Every structure is written in C-alpha cells, then in structure tokens.
C-alpha cells in the first residue's frame, strides 16, 4: 500500500489543527461566565438588603432571578468544558478531586440534550417570573398580554424541540451503525 501524497498529508494536518480556531471562542465563554458572575453578584447585592422588608412574592422573584442566572452559568460551563473536550483538546488537569463526573463523558449528543434541558429550564423560570408579576400589583409588569403569549409559545417550542431531539437520539441509538 502506498503512502498518501505529501500535499494531502499536510492538508489533513492543517485541517485537524484548525480546531484550535475554536479556542478563542471558549476563552470568550470564560469572559461571558465572568459577566454572568458580575450580574449575579449585582442582583444579590440589590436584593439582600431588602430581605427583611420584601414581600413573599418579591422574595420568590428575587430567588428565581438568581436561579435563572446560575442555570445560565451552569449551561455556559457545560458548553465550555464539553465543547472544548469534544472539539479542541482534552483538558489535562490530572485526577483533580473536584473534577465533575460528567467531564470527558459528555459527547455531542449528550451536550445537545443538556443544552436543550437547560434552555427549557431557563425559559420556564423566566415564564414563571412573568406569571408571578401578573398576580402581584406591586411589581411592574414588563410587556403586554401578547408578549406573554409569545413567551408561552416560545417556551412550548423549546419543550417540543427537546422532546423531538430526545426522540431522534433514542431512534438513532436503536439503529444499526454503519
């Protein structure tokens, strides 16, 4: 059997090395995680002094806001770690005690499912916050009924998309591999 031509080998090596063009994007996600942390701390600093005087509904909305931000940060970490390990290079951090169990085990299909599940959760929390605003005259409602209807439609679209993605993955796992 003959070796590949030198030009083809160089091209393939260059093509494989091009995965490193993704590295700045993952670095950008680290910056985005820092931004979310700043927003989280700002929200916490805003709500914490009001804890002794805020009403139950306001407290729930404050907590939902913080949960929403932490879910978005979790989503960022999942995309950051899994994407980097799946598409660029394995993270060489040794046998760190605090290494999450899922790291190195989430393939593209698993990443896709975690992503849609996180989006559905974030959308659901945001929708719950809006519904709670409707029932509380002391909290200003942003948007109108049409906006809320669109939010429900979009949330249901996320849910249906998640179910369809899960169904496609399940069907793919049941078929013979080529």
TrEMBL record:
GO cellular component, one term: plasma membrane
Residues passing through the membrane, by range: 20-40, 60-81, 148-172
Membrane topology label: Multi-pass membrane protein
Subcellular localization, as worded in the UniProt entry: Cell membrane
Pfam hit, one: UPF0114
Cross-referenced InterPro entries: UPF0114, UPF0114_bac
Keyword terms: Cell membrane, Membrane, Transmembrane, Transmembrane helix
Family affiliation: Belongs to the UPF0114 family.
PANTHER family documented for this protein: UPF0114 PROTEIN YQHA
NCBIfam families for this protein: HI0507 (TIGR00645)
Protein name, entry field: UPF0114 protein GEU84_008590
Taxonomic source organism: Fertoeibacter niger
């Amino acid at each position: 059997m003959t070796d590949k031509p030198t030009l083809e080998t160089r091209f393939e090596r260059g093509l494989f090395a091009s995965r490193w063009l993704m590295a700045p994007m993952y670095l950008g996600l680290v910056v985005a995680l820092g931004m979310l942390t700043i927003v989280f701390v700002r929200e916490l600093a805003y709500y914490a002094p009001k804890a002794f005087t805020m009403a139950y509904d306001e407290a729930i909305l404050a907590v939902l806001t913080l949960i929403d931000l932490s879910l978005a940060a979790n989503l960022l970490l999942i995309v950051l770690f899994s994407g980097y390990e799946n598409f660029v290079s394995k993270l060489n951090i040794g046998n760190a005690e605090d290494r999450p169990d899922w790291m190195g085990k989430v393939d593209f299909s698993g990443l896709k499912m975690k992503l849609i599940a996180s989006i559905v959760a974030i959308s659901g929390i945001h929708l719950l916050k809006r519904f709670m605003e409707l029932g509380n005259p002391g909290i200003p409602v942003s948007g109108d009924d049409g906006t809320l209807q669109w939010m429900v439609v979009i949330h249901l679209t996320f849910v249906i998309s998640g179910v369809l993605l899960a169904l496609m993955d399940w069907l793919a796992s049941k078929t013979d591999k080529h």
